[in-house]
Amino acid sequence: MDNETTLRAFHLRFGSQELVDSLLTFIEQVLVPRRVNLLLLECNTSFQFEVYPELSEGTLNKYDAKEIARICKRNGIRLIPLFQCLGHQGWGGGRNSILKHYPQFDETPHIPTDANWPDFFAPSWCPNHPEVNHLAFELIDELIEAFACDGFHVGMDEVIELADNQCPRCHGHDRADLFAKAVTDMRSHIVEKHGLEMFMWGDRLISSEETGYHNMWESDTFGTYKAIEQIPTDITIMDWHYDRHSSYPSIKIFLEKGFKVIPACWFKTDAAVAFLGESLQTAKELNAQKRMPGMLVTSWNGWNKQAFEQFITDQLDGELKELKETLDQVTGILK
């Protein structure tokens, strides 16, 4: 692959001022030697928002963001913040700060806060509420300014709670229409207003039945996938699959639709290598290499000082050890 355009990306969730120095060291001693050139930093509400300070659930502030951005720029790393939109507004029945302070935005306010999976997965905000986008856009704008970024990731993975029968605005609506509306609303703000590249996870746009990803997480089983026909193709799709499959047909689907698509793996090395290999081959067969530029390695462990130090000093075991091996393998293939 062309070294100038090859994407070697890494993702982590981060929202702690106390860990900024550890993150910066991690960037320069772990990511830079592996030629990682995109860092997807998932902040969500773990940021000290000034416009809505009551929503801040972490300690990361705008000065930390500028320093992280400075170090990334100095090392040729594109920094993309991620803020979960629509879904993942909490875990189980527990709501995050947005739905706690603005319960009128809750798609499923009737669900008790002590609800657990499998009875309930995670709350969403209502895509048809007339005021929810105003709040979301102000939060996104603050992150865009703080990180001085040229792209933004809106999340939108694993959106299960949608078109709830008890939502007065969404009841009776088609799930795909609601999801497409939420996506295009975000695109209007990020792409059209700000001129940035918009990223999102791709799982809700994949039919489980048609692709053979037979679970409700990495593909859709509720009909949301039909939204793929309604959203603009200038959105970059991050297509995550963490387990080994006999094939990964979603890459071909996204490329044939005209999207730019980035396969995303986790710590399982054999699955990551197989997924990347098929993605590269599919892009070559479709003469679409520019729209399948590389791979994202995700990390879902808790990033504390110990985890950063273990990675930096290469004193790893268990999942973190395999995550490092996966990062080494993926960046090595994409050299």
Query: If you compute it from the alpha carbons, what radius of gyration comes out, rounded to the nearest whole angstrom?
Result: 19 Å
Sequence of strands across the biggest β-sheet: 1-2-3-6-7-8-9-10
Instruction: Please tally the helical runs, counting DSSP H or I stretches of 4 or more residues.
Output: 10
The averaged pLDDT comes out at 97
Sheet with most strands: 8 strands, parallel, barrel
Q: What is the name of the CATH topology?
A: TIM Barrel
Number of separate strands? 10
Corresponding CATH architecture: Alpha-Beta Barrel
CATH superfamily descriptor: Glycosidases
Helix content range of the residues, please? Answer: 25-40%
Broad shape: globular
Tell me the layout of helices and strands.
Elements (H helix, E strand, L loop, with lengths): L6 E7 L6 H12 L6 E5 L19 H13 L3 E8 L4 E2 L2 E2 L1 H5 L30 H16 L3 E5 L19 H19 L3 E5 L6 H4 L24 E5 L9 H8 L2 E6 L3 H17 L8 E4 L7 H9 L4 H16 L2
Parallel strand pairs: 1-2, 1-10, 2-3, 3-6, 6-7, 7-8, 8-9, 9-10
Antiparallel strand pairs: 4-5
